[in-house]
Design brief:
By secondary structure, this protein is α/β, with parallel strands linked by helices. The chain contains 11 helices and 10 strands. It has an 8-stranded mixed sheet with strand order 3-2-1-4-8-6-9-7, sandwiched between helices.
Amino acid sequence: MNKLYAPLLIPTLNRFDHFSSCVNSLLQCELSSETDLYIALDYPLKEQHYDGYNKIKGFIEKIDGFKSVNVLQREHNYGAHQNIHEAIDFLFQKYETLILTEDDNVFSTDFLLFMNKSFETYKDSLDVFSVCGYNYPVEIPKSYENEVYLWTGYSAWGVGFWRSKFVNVNWTEETVHSDVKTFLHDYRKVVQLDKIANNYVPALLHMHNIQKIHGDTYICMYQFLNKMVSVFPVISRVRNMGHDGSGINCGTMEDDFFSVQEIYTGTHTYKIPKLNSTNSIINKILYNHFKTDWNSKMKLIIKLILFRLGFTNNKQ
């Protein structure tokens, strides 16, 4: 494995409790002392942001245990999308790989090791777009003996990119929205994507209707169109704590199973196998995990018909 390990990027604004838990969790990881930490600190947009923002600024000054701590401090509010992507562009001027996490995640102690091992194993695999540290709450058969699997899906909860692959994605708003609109007009591709997971097409339609970029949704579509996959761990290396209403994407869950999800506690001596294809059994398990009922399917069909007729429901 290369001695230059992937840097770690955390975009944040004002969620001090989440951010401090995230950083403290990463400090417990093997390789933390050899990892450069970058924090993209956005500027407050609202008065209620300042308290958490100032606490984060104070906390950052005391962080110790990483190879280096670097702050990309914004002088005005960028918003989540711009803050993240300008930080990624900045890091890719120096590094070949990077690890990105939202500020509401906590990690297994081998998270950084898992990511760097996976980078090394799949660096020459042109069809592998990213390495995901999170795994969905699904039960993988015990007969499946590999540490990882490949899937057309994607999760932003602790994810790694290669510069050579990420730079091929055009993130300009005009291009993203045009690509999504074109895709939704292609009935054959819509049906094919829906056969992988039922959550993809509704997410793309929602993104089109509200005219906002959801990076995870767009990457899923990009991978599908380019016959690419992501690497996933069989046992998650990430636990998400953000379903408390504090973020901009995740709402509040009364039964928040994400915050108590199992994460890896085993040894750090494993190897990451180089797989060449997805696994049909795991594909079916994930399809069933995201499967919607017939009522939801009929509603989606109606929305797609209205979309093709030129009607947009901006309240979706």
